[in-house]
Amino acid sequence: MSAVFARLIASRLFWPIVMLLVLFAINLIAFPGFFAITIKDGHLFGSLIDILRNGAPTLIIAVGMTLVIATRGIDLSVGAVCAISGAVACSIILGSPDPANGATVAVAVTVALAISLVLGVWNGFLVAVLGIQPIIATLILMTAGRGMAMLITEGQILTVNSPPFKAMGSGFWFGVPIAVIIAAVVFAVAALLTRRTALGMLIESVGINPEASRQAGVRARGLLFAVYTFCAFCAAIAGLILTANQTAADANNTGLFLELDAILAVVIGGTSLAGGRYSLAGTLVGALVIQTLVTTVYTVGIPPIATMVFKAAVVAAVCLLQSPTTNQALAGFRRRLALRAGKGIAAS
Amino acid sequence: MTQPSPAPVVEMRGISIEFPGVKALDGVDFRMFPGEVHSLMGENGAGKSTLIKALTGVYGIDAGVITLAGDEVSFTGPAQAQAAGISTVYQEVNLLPNLTVAENIMLGREPRRFGVVDWRRTRRRAAELLEGLNLEIDPNSLLGDHSLAIQQLVAIARAIDVQAKVLILDEPTSSLDADEVAELFRVIRSLKEQGVAILFVSHFLDQVYEICDRLTVLRNGKLVGEYLTDEILRIDLVQKMIGKELTALDELEQRARSSVAAVEGQDVSDPAFASARGLARRGAIAPFDLDIAPGEVVGLAGLLGSGRTELARLLGGIDRADQGTLVIDGRQTKLRTPRQAINRRVAYSSENRRSEGVVDELTVRDNIVLALQADRGWFRPIPKKRQEELAQSYIQALNIRPANPDALVRNLSGGNQQKVLLARWLAIAPHLLILDEPTRGIDIGAKAEIQKLVYSLAENGMSVLFISAELEEVLRLSHRIAVLRDRRIVADLVNDDLQVEALLALIADGGGDGDGGGGPEDPDDGPGGATTDAPPEPSVPPGGTEPDPTPDSTIDLSGARR
Known about the structure:
Chain A is mainly alpha-helical. Chain A contains 15 helices and six strands. In chain A, helix 4 packs parallel to helix 6. Chain B is built from 18 helices and 22 strands. Chain B is globular, with a radius of gyration of 24 Å. The interface between A and B is medium-sized, with 28 and 39 residues.
């Protein structure tokens, strides 16, 4: 019994899941219908569905961010890439004679995603080839990217009226929000791509010890290019969902501070910012925690101005629980428990 | 030998420490007397470091009693132990290279005046401490400008400033040359006279016998016994450490010697597997010629910093040569990356197994398959079953402990990490295996196993380039030996009953510059040194701009990326 418990505590997912359950419990108390999921007009409705749908962009970015962080890197430019992809898509749709046409939307989305690949390669180039520290390298695009988005929108908020595009953000497919489906696909692709191939191990290896990996013949440079490109691609998808949801591209505000939420989700999920071993499942839980937090603020009725403080408190709690010092203390506690149990067995 | 005063300064009784699944220490007794040098002996994983960490408060103990000068103590952290008079100097010097010697010695306890640091008194106190150890080091010089040996002495000066009753030196000599060791021993002796109890941990038996008064032997977390150094024969000591007869090495020697002749015979008919002509890299190694035949073990002998590692790194594709040609398996090759070398079935096993070898947070299995997987490409993963087979077979073949493919390499002892690294290279079935100090800092048992392995690999047709600071080892294993001095090959000898003395003469023969031209840690004395035929440009740019810092400087910024 205590052995199972010990293993549970040792799991990296333990505290994030506890956090999520606590948040659920708070919500349930404040709003008894929290877990209720109903079907209206053939669509799923309910607080949990809202959390999933609103959390989708954060989760998508966090998945890309997880891989970047696993290589000892970080990508601050994801928010800006969101804005750019939204701006590109909206300006193409606006510029076309038939915004409601599915083909138009397809072209817009494809171009936006293609541009994100270029941006990702740029980040990868700065980090992998020029050897600039990731935080600095991506800071360039973080600031410059908003400017680029601004140029694309010419300083306007581009409002589009295109039902197929709008569906990306707020539509349903077989009753499930399309944004959730997209997030699930991105998550599954990333998981399969890294865990069913050797990619995940090689990424971790580079993150833990770049020089040892190089000497073992790992193509670290190629891997860095791959993760930054993938991360930018994820950011672009998230940007499209956000823009579609608002039916407007806002160069200044689309994806603002989303990089921080994404990094937070990764960290809450137990992946160390020092690189190395990562957990996509952890990131999933982390993203849900963040989104549930936002929802909780509304259901519990915390005034919006206190939202940030509330968020900060939760983040601080999770970080404390995951800190090496706390873990050491817990490990000591566990060891004493186990010893006592062992002595008990010996005595009996 | 003076009889130690009857009351031990440290006494540990019945110490047990348990980690999940492992009993690291099991009822161990240990004591130290003032004014005595005591050595803790045992193989890797015997529990030496755990015992030291228990004494210094890094680990809490699960059972047992620690008394210090008669009082029972229970430390909850290293700071407490230090305050109580137990100081430790670790293998890796934990100092700050960008501060001055004085600042390093006094760091964290600078004398203060009106709340600010009193620099004059700081420097004076540091100077006094250095003087107390008879060290002529300028307290105002930057620590990083000194050799590792000096840095170690500075670390000792820092340690004894805390009124140390007990000084623990963990592998202090592993990267020092003979002169530096002598200097260190002089300091140890003077501290001993002052009544400090010194715990000296080293893998070098010679040094243990030279400096230590008393030994405690551990094996598998248990106490084997405590002995006076004068009263125990080496062969008995080794037996107690590894718990079995050590005849394997002698046998090996016999076999290696007898096979030398055989390889010599082949030499003419077999083309070399790898053959370098005028290969060089500026500031690292002068142009050299070297041939390695299949089934041949070529040893590299030379002092630290003589260019051994630099030469090996060129052959392994770790660094790029800037001139000369390299023919591997009959094809002329320019190795730009380790990856290309691996592609040609050339594997370089780094001497810095922690920083350049194992990936310590991955499992044993992942580490073993890493190079093979990288060579196959990420999209062709090695099937889980095959990975398991590979890991299991190497764990068995190399006797890796714990025999658990899912264990994190970080938790393995040094010798076992080395074996994991070897397994990684063997998994790619190399034709040329370059082993850079594969036996450094590991225990005798593992050492013998690795030597046997090298021997049998060569017997099966693999070419091996073997580097070791221990000449006996090079002599025992190599068919041919290339001697390096001042970053060039000065001799290429067939190992036909070569003697250590002959090799030593070649290594040391600097045309009257008997000291080998300064410490091995500062190879930038090339122009002023003994070599008269050095290239016209200074062989190494001064200061820290050297492209390949001496791999032994453990105060490496670990984040350094190429």
